[in-house]
Amino acid sequence: MTLTFHWFLPTNGDSRDIVSGGHGVPTGAAGGARPASVAYLGQIARSAEQLGFVGALTPTGAWCEDAWLSTAMLTEVTERLKFLVAFRPGLLAPTLAAQMASTFQRLSRGRLLLNVVTGGESQEQRAYGDFLDKDARYARADEFLHVVRALWRGETVDHDGTHVRVEQARLHRPPDPVPPVYFGGSSAAALPVAVRHSDVYLTWGEPPALVAEKLERVRALAARAGRELRFGIRLHVIVRDTAEQAWAQAQRLLDGVSEADIRAVQEGLRRSESEGQRRMLDLNGGSRDGLEVAPNLWAGVGLVRGGAGTALVGSHAEIADRIAEYHALGIDEFILSGYPHLEEAYWFGEGVLPILRERGLWRHPDGQPGTGDHVDIPFAGVPAPQPAVAR
């Protein structure tokens, strides 16, 4: 199996820094906030498509644009790229969610992937009218996905559960193909739900030894449930022609973060109920020191960003090596991002993907030979015309 790569759509806006806004950009320097317009997100999506990414993750939350609406618009400015739409069970009825997915799949010609996010922050969930605690949210997600998958199979569903109740629910037109379900979660409440309903189990970018341990637990649970899952990982990337250049860029990002930013974000993240978020916090320790937590794995992003908080940092060959290392553990899908998302997609797509192609680990979804092919330059090698000599 060749590796699958997805990119990320910053529907909260983009910039050259992890934390944007408020600091100003001096004249003569590049920078500034980039609003999450259809025009700019379309640039990222089209670039990801051209470079060979299969899909693009679109986040969910009060801090960004709605994932369903944003990606529906972007299907019209792309041709092949799939959209990994993050959504939260419980904020809409399962029958409506199943219908929305079916419509999206049909009108986009099969370009929907679904990322189930139960929600790790009770305060934000309550703002949406959801007052369940974390374990109850996972129990509800279990019932929700049971109903959705039955509807996708074309069944008529009656379900009277603790959190979900439907009578004679049925889809007029089930999706074809059924969208794959991506599901993360590291807690005891999350893992059983993940193995019952996900097609791809996602983990955030931890050191390989910790990833291996987690995947082994998930494999064992899935085997007991009679299922076999694919595995994916969510990471940022900072890749350059040399390791020195990549680490200099990581340092530049870190230099753009104030101590006040770090304290404020870390204080908020420590209130999170997410086990995955706790593991990210353990990696960075709230400090600028000791952030390379494994070879080429940098935990600096997580100082001021919730969710995925680590980045692969290094030369093209080093990052290709680290990806191969994760692949050896069983990871087949990589969901990547970088600051800014447009430029970093090219650094990775033009630098790392050709190496992985040469190693037989990746091929372009369109069957294109890639960016490393020889290009003939018109008139190259043709002798220059000699000046006329008067006789």
Poorly predicted runs of 5 or more residues: 21-27
User: Beta-strand percentage?
Assistant: 15-25%
Number of strands: 13
What percent of residues adopt helix (DSSP H or I)? 25-40%
Q: Write the element-wise H/E pattern from the N-terminal end onward.
A: EHEHEHEHHEEEHEHEHHHEEEHEHH
Number of helices: 13
Estimated radius of gyration: 23 Å
| Structure classification | alpha/beta
- Strand order in the sheet with the most strands: 1-2-3-4-7-8-9-13
Shape: globular
Mean pLDDT: 92
Largest sheet, described in full? 8 strands, parallel, barrel
Distance between the termini: 71 Å
What does this structure look like?
There is one protein chain. With 391 residues, this protein is α/β, with parallel strands linked by helices. The chain has 13 helices and 13 strands. The chain has helices spanning 38-51, 67-74, 94-107, 122-127, 134-152, 190-197, 208-224, 243-255, 259-269, 275-284, 316-329, 341-351, 353-358; strands at 4-8, 55-58, 82-87, 112-116, 157-160, 165-169, 181-183, 200-204, 230-240, 292-294, 297-298, 311-315, 331-337. α1 (38-51) packs parallel to α12, α5 (134-152) packs parallel to α6 and α6 crosses α7 (208-224). The chain is globular and about 70 Å long.
